[in-house]
């Protein structure tokens, strides 16, 4: 992000400093801005893929835990139905 901003600032400084504008004069600075943007986007996309994988894995674990707790509660309820209470 900062590379993009710095590259564009440098390009605009050259534009304002030179009365006769040449594309080759600012092309290098614009290239810096575009390259840093591309690398930032590539990094963000890769990290988003890993983030989505981790979130899906966590959701799967949580679902397994919920299913196991339901099975445990069902077993406890069934067990208490079989218990006979004797009053004295």
Features:
single chain; 88 residues; mainly alpha; 2 helices
Tally of structural domains: 1
**Helix tally?**
2
Order of helices and strands: HH
Radius of gyration: 31 Å
Q: Could you describe the largest sheet, including whether it forms a barrel?
A: none
Give the CA-CA distance, first to last residue.
79 Å
Mean pLDDT: 85
Would you count the extended β strands for me? 0
**Share in β-strands:** under 5%
Please tell me what the overall shape is.
rod-shaped
In short:
The protein is mostly helical and 88 residues long. The chain has two helices and no strands. The radius of gyration is 31 Å and the shape is rod-shaped.
Topology:
Blueprint: H1 2-17, H2 23-82
Give a structural overview.
- There is one protein chain.
- This protein is an all-alpha fold.
- It has one domain (2-82).
- Helix content is 86%, strand content 0%.
- It has helices at 2-17, 23-82.
- Helix 1 packs antiparallel against helix 2.
- The chain starts with a helix and ends in a 6-residue tail after the last helix.
